[in-house]
Amino acid sequence: MSYISLAVYFIAMLGIGVFAYRRSTSDMSGYILGGRQVSPQVTALSAGASDMSGWMLMGLPGAMFVGGFDSMFIAIGLLVGALANYILVAPKLRVYTEVANDALTIPEFFAKRFNRKTSSIRIISAAIIVLFFTLYTSAGLVAGGKLFESAFGLDYQVGLIITLGVVVSYTLLGGFLAVSLTDFVQGCIMFVALALVPIVAYQQFTDSNEMLGYAYQSIPTFSQTMSDMTWLGLVSSLAWGLGYFGQPHIIVRFMAIRSVPAVKTARAIGMSWMTVTIIGALSTGLVGVAYANKFALAVDDPETIFIIFSELLFNPIISGFLLAAILAAIMSTISSQLLVSASSLTEDIYRLKAGNEVSDEQTVKMGRYGVAGVAIIALLLSLDSDNSILSLVSNAWAGFGAAFGPLVLFCLYKANLTHKAAVAGIISGAVTVLVWIYAPLLPDGQALSSVMYEIVPGFIVSAAVIWLVSLFGDEPSEATAAMFDETNLVLAKQHSN
Q1: What SS3 string covers the chain?
Q2: pTM confidence score
Q3: Fewest C-beta atoms under 10 Å: which of 39, 48, 472, 481?
Q4: What is the pLDDT of residues 35-67, one digit of tens each?
Q5: For the segment 93-120, what is each residue's pLDDT rounded down to a tens digit?
Q6: What are the domain boundaries of the chain?
């Protein structure tokens, strides 16, 4: 019955792809942004589902299972960061990208923000998007491979191919509209699953004291966690929230929403959804470690505790639905990442180099080739089943947050930002993150990421470089200043309506 449930889910996702193919893929605006007519409901759940990938149902419960309440501060940082993103970025980015000659991608917005159709910043930012999204996509594929290996006994590599095959199919067909609509459905599935699993698992205990007693056999108590936590550890966990400002697959949703007033509705829905699902994910890990201790359950891979609960505590029909929730989380993020990567490859590299003679139909075709190309490379990177989902996600999250996060905020709020400062900020943020992750600079050969999460120094360095370089740059052109002023006027007018 689990197989039947998953088969129905796969068919439904492909059906949405075919529907979207017939509705919105004849031009690049439709393929990349859904014609900027996406509803607030779809925007909210699409942003949430593409954000909270397989790490939500596997990585975060696994972190709670192993480390205990430390992971709770990651969740708090994410909630605060998501709320700030809705308030500070969403409304202004929606207006600014349209005022800036209808910029369709984040790299294109960066270029047009400085009134430059062609510029180094567009190529550099597109390259960074492809680099980090390939790594990010591989994290989702690892989750898919582990799902099929753990739940169905299939070979890990076979699970990778099945996961990738379905998500690439509907992304190739329907573009942004397909991705957004499937994300909406997948977000609903994730919401129900993360509310249901920890509640049912909790029923195996007489009360919370018993559950916590068993949990504390393996993880520190909350008071111990607080007393042992260092300032560096706390800052590293909360700093996950900084990443939201620079995640292309999330903020592109704000560019596609139908109006600024709709952002407020999307924020209410999105934050409610996120609060429930994050609490559900943490609760799954906490109840999971207690359950494993009480019933002497061997858990070889803590990141599969949600899968184990799905199989142990529910009948096959419900189990199939819950496994579909994991696939929903995985596929929603992979599809978003593939689409944004392909958009950058086509709009910001291919079309920029080929010139205006390239038609929209040719560019959409190249976009589909881009989806397939990034997917194949990500597949090769994910062949090692020992990869940690949360570790892969954290590296990519930090890369985007440091490279793009400060620049997005400066672009929206600093009128005299210079092009040189923007380029320097992107490069310095990305390089800082890579050095922090991979350079063995500590005496014991460890990388600096073992001391502090790399997004913290990356974000600070990028912001400082942007600010300092802007101080010594030229004043923005009249056209650039006019776009900045027009954005504020349009934003004020839409808010008043």
Answers
A1: CHHHHHHHHHHHHHHHHHHHHHHHCCCHHHHHHHHHCECHHHHHHHHHHHHCCHHHHHHHHHHHHHHCCHHHHHHHHHHHHHHHHHHHHHHHHHHHHHHCCCCCCHHHHHHHHCCCCCCHHHHHHHHHHHHHHHHHHHHHHHHHHHHHHHHHCCCHHHHHHHHHHHHHHHHHHHHHHHHHHHHHHHHHHHHHHHHHHHHHHHCCCCCHHHHHHHHCCCCCCHHHHHHHCCHHHHHHHHHHHHHHHHCHHHHHHHHHECCCHHHHHHHHHHHHHHHHHHHHHHHHHHHHHHHHHHCCCCCCCHHHHHHHHHHHHCCHHHHHHHHHHHHHHHHHHHHHHHHHHHHHHHHHHHHHHHCCCCCHHHHHHHHHHHHHHHHHHHHHHCCCCCCCHHHHHHHHHHHHHHHHHHHHHHHHHCCCCCHHHHHHHHHHHHHHHHHHHHCCCCCCCCCHHHCCCCHHHHHHHHHHHHHHHHHCCCCCCHHHHHHHHHHHHHHHHHHHC
A2: 0.83
A3: 472
A4: 677 788 888 887 787 777 667 777 788 889 988
A5: 999 988 888 777 788 888 888 887 667 8
A6: 2-390
